[in-house]
Amino acid sequence: QSFVIQRGPTLPKPPCLIYCCVWRFRDRFCQEQLKEHFLSIIGLVSSASHHTKFVDKMDQNGGVIPGRVANGNGVAGSTNGHGPSKPQQPQAGDPDESLKWRVGLRNASGKFLTAEPFGFKLNASGASLKMRQTWVLVPDPEHPSTVCLKSHLNRFLSADKDGLVSCSSEEAGPETRFIIEYAGDGVQWALKSAQHGLYFSGEEDRVKCFSKAPVWWTCQLALHPQVHVKNLNRGRYLRLGSGEISADRVNPWGAESLITLMKRDGRVAIRASDGRYLARGGELLDRLDEAESLFSIQVHCGPCPGLAFKDSAGRFLTNIGATGTSKTKNQTVSKDELFVLEDSYPQIAVKAFNGRYASIKQGQDLNANQSDIDVTETYQLEFHAASGKWRFRTKDDKFWKLSTVGSGISATGDSRDQSTLFAMEYQPKGRVALKCSNGSYLSAKKLGAVNATGSEVKSEEQFQLVLLNRPIVVFRCDFGFVGIKNSRLECNLVSYDAFNLEVSDSGFYHIRGSEGFWCVQADGSISFKGERPEEFLLEFRSRSCVAIQASNGCYVRGEQNGTMRADADEIRAACLWEY
């Protein structure tokens, strides 16, 4: 079924289409997602005092189509996630994204602050951190010591002089500003109204801002934990160096720039791409040491807002020396101690049928003639939501594009050029065919030349995409994170486990944990105790999601009860995994 919400007869006709979503009711999860999403929309529409009506239409093909929301000009924009219940994600290069922090706030009872879609009601009864429990901390440049909290409905949290709290303000104002105070352990936060000097509190539906004493909340980052981390003062990204984590990279290029934040009791550990943990003294430890490797996170506003990492001794992480060695040093925060977190996009190598990698080592023209992978054979894979196509970014921030003369491919394009977009068509054994803007497929010759001349998909038109910057990987679906609980692999957890992702020469991936390899059981369920590596394929399906195809030819899907099974014969929402 598809449902079209239209504005009522009080507005000029024809009615303005403001939302359209098509969804296939394959299981109860899809039904619940659709229900929750429509509730959010109705909440937005009702705030504008518009009448709404639902018009039923039949979906002709029953496929899953991402939601499309019309803007004020009537132009539809696509969500850049893997389902209509997801809030719209920022595109690559969004200059404001690194200055916004998505968090969840959990009270002393373990419940999350929740913004309900009907009437913008608030409560503190959320059992887990999902869309309605996600808040964006927005620094106020005009008031450096304060921060505003914005809900998933893009409304600001506010408190009046009588302690009444609401979440319906479209614009920031004096009553939407809060000061964050930290407990002695640095883990818990108190939110103090900057206007009235009273503290914010919440228990179930009793949410108010009238306490004279601090009321403590635990902050939890509401983001995928695999990120790039940049030091604000140096303007350099952290990366795994020689026995240390250094801040000396202008671009976060390659696997060594991947940082995984492992959560433990309100704190985080900083894990390098080789699986080792950063200690406060700058060493890398094979195992997580709670006294040495855990940091609490503090938000610092002002002209250069950022995050600070505080160790158990009250000192803050910074970067020292010519190579920018990461270690804690000072007990006060300056720009040297501030960092921003950015999404880690997939970076890949492209292997042609001749066994060589696509390279720009010999200039701007693309050739599949290199046997080893270096920075000139590494490309950032970026999804273009409006077209459903893909771009390949080089280390010099240029894109593959169709040459203006001939049919060659050069690494000289920019994001405004439509010839930088490639349609990706999956072939057997995880190979892909890439269709260029001229309607032809990329084709590799035996000697390495790559041209957009293929009229059909043969071996020369098939490429293997090798994921490079996830040597360890954390998976998340709409039900939660993937991890080990009660001696089984589950996908509805608040916490998560990081798994080793190993790629074979044949293009298959092996997923390994501390107790063995992922493997498919006779009933299709996924075990994490396999003695031998089992072959899986990864298919890139959106900006941050992959589908996982198991050795039995089926896709791995998640269930609301946490079960993971390789029994889906086609890709649907439950088969998409954020990584």
TrEMBL record:
**Keyword Nucleotidyltransferase found:** no
Record's GO cellular component terms:
actin cytoskeleton; cytoplasm
Q: Which GO terms describe its molecular function?
A: actin filament binding; protein-macromolecule adaptor activity
Q: Which domain of life is it from?
A: Eukaryota
Location comes to: Cytoplasm, Cytoskeleton
What are the boundaries of the region Disordered?
65-97
The chain positions of domain Fascin-like read 111-214, 256-340, 354-465, 492-579
- Keywords for this entry? Actin-binding, Cytoplasm, Cytoskeleton
Family membership: Belongs to the fascin family.
Q: What is this protein called?
A: Fascin-like domain-containing protein
- This protein's species is Macrostomum lignano
